[in-house]
Amino acid sequence: MILHPPLPVADDLSQAFWEGVNERRLLVQRCAACRRFQFPPDASCASCSSTELSFEEVSGRGAVFSFTETVSGARHPYFQSISPYLVGLVQLEEQEGLIFASNFPGSEYADLEIGAPVDVEFQEIAEGAVIPQFRLRTVRLAER
Ligand SMILES: [Zn+2]
Question: How much is the pTM?
Fold first, then answer.
């Protein structure tokens, strides 16, 4: 049995988001009335209650908002198999409070710090199933 994380299941509200992810684009719902982004998608704007919402591509750049290392207690077999693993929240640069969850692929706990810059990447976790994850932006010495 090949283990993978739980697969995304699109519904009416998240369909456009997952279609974007499958095209390796991060599309976030935005309100036409107040211009606020929101995630996850909802039927109305959390800020002004407008229902004039559409999806806009965002940069995929952000910063670590919080993080932890899960060392025990995972219930899903995939997460049990990769424990310990990192999990945390990323705030996108487009807007304060625009938050995504991520596992920080390629990083170890000691690499992470609040505010560290990250970039979205798209991982195919099973055939035809893609999820967004955020990877620490590594700065090469020559670029400093
Ligand atoms: Zn609004």
Answer: 0.91
Could you tell me the distance, in angstroms and rounded to a whole number, from the CA of residue 5 to the centre of ligand 1? 33
Domains of the chain: 11-58 (no CATH), 59-144 (2.40.50)
**Euclidean distance between CA atoms 10 and 33, whole angstroms:** 25
| Burial of residue 128 (number of CB atoms within 10 Å: 0-12, 13-18, 19+) | exposed
Ligand 1 centroid–CA 30 distance in Å is 8
Q: What's the pLDDT tens digit per position in 88-123?
A: 999 999 999 999 999 999 999 999 999 999 999 999
